[in-house]
Each structure stands twice: as C-alpha cells, then as structure tokens.
Design brief:
By secondary structure, the chain is mainly β. The chain contains two helices and 13 strands; from the N terminus they run E-E-E-E-H-E-E-E-E-E-E-E-E-E-H. It has a domain of 127 residues: Sandwich (Jelly Rolls). The strands form three sheets. Strands 1-2-10-7-12-5 form a six-stranded antiparallel beta sheet, with no helix packed on it. Pathway: Carbohydrate biosynthesis; dTDP-L-rhamnose biosynthesis. Homodimer.
Amino acid sequence: MIEVRALELEDVLEIVPRKFGDERGYFCETYHRARYASQGIAMEFVQDNQSYSAQKGVLRGLHYQLPPRAQDKLVRVLKGRIYDVAVDIRRASATFGRWVGLEISAAKGNQILVPKGFAHGFVTLEEHTIVSYKVSDYYSPEHDCGILYNDPEIGIDWPIMGLDLQLSKKDSEASPLRGSELF
Ligand SMILES: Cc1cn([C@H]2C[C@H](O)[C@@H](COP(=O)(O)OP(=O)(O)O[C@H]3O[C@H](C)C(=O)[C@H](O)[C@H]3O)O2)c(=O)[nH]c1=O
C-alpha cells in the first residue's frame, strides 16, 4: 500500500502511498500509522502544518528545531510542486553538511520524511502551491533555527534558474552552517 525508498542520505525517505483511481478521480490513504511504522516511520506526529505560497520561487528554509524539541517532518504537497531539500546537520554524522533534494508534487502524490538532525527547506516550482506536513514535536520558537539556503559550504543545487526568489526576512538573514547551533 506504500512504497518507501531511502534517498542518497539514507535516513531521508521518499514515500509514495497507493492511489486508487477511477472515473471520478482518486482516493489515497496519505498516512497510516501502523503501515508507516512497519517501514521505519514510527515517530508520533503531534502537529499538522500547512503553508500556501502564491508565487513560484518562494523559498522557505532551511529550518529545524534544536533538541529537546527537534522535529521529524513528513511533507507532502496538496497543490502544485516543490523541490524539497534536507541537510544533515548532525556534527558526528559521516554525511555532515551534505544535502539531498527531491521534487514533491500533488500530481505525483509522493512524500518526504525529514528526520530530526536535518535542516529542511523547499522552493515552490508552481504558483498557488500548498504544502502540508506532520511534525513530531510542537512548534517551539525558542528552539527554532535557520541556516542560509545558499551557504556555499553546503552547495545546494536549487532548481531556481529564471525564478524570482521570494524569502522571508528571517531566511534571507540566516547564518551559514558553521555559524549555526547544530546537533
Ligand atoms: C513553523 C511554525 C510557524 N508558526 C508561525 C511563526 C510565524 O509567525 C509564522 C510563519 O512562520 P515561518 O516563517 O517559520 O514559516 P515557514 O517559513 O513556512 O517555515 C516552515 O517551513 C519550513 C520549510 C520548515 O521546515 C519549517 O517547518 C517551518 O519553519 O507562523 C507557527 O505558529 N507554528 C509553526 O509550527
């Protein structure tokens, strides 16, 4: 009922739940606690988030919450398309500072699991994109941190050629990886 594959950073997963299509459209179970847990996605999600971005080129991130309020994130797109990125910010990790990216869209119906210890961000690739995601701890502004999306030390290859980027003030002024409090 769900396909799960590890991305190049193996703790980051792509999930594709099964769609049941018919002449009306489709039905899909977009989360199933027992089935997801059987595939290693066993964290308890306590909060659902949703963001709407009017334009393509809206870039949100790179964000994370520090321990003890770190969050796992299960991200999907209700409308539109994004390029989603996870960055390993665990100092002791063999892949510290490395990133992985995945296109997620309402059409594909795919999802990404970004575990604790990773910074998360995305850029919208279509207008009127709606992103919905589950998190495994509540929002805690005191633990909320950001890393500069275009930090050359991370070197994310954002597919933003020809896009007018739109960032929040917070994101445009974020620190680079080395200047940030990490895991
Ligand atoms: C994240 C969050 C935010 N807020 C409030 C705080 C701000 O007044 C307002 C906008 O927050 P922010 O600019 O952080 O929203 P995004 O830029 O979409 O950030 C999110 O998108 C990136 C890609 C992420 O991975 C994070 O989960 C999250 O930080 O919503 C809340 O009330 N609760 C929350 O859980």
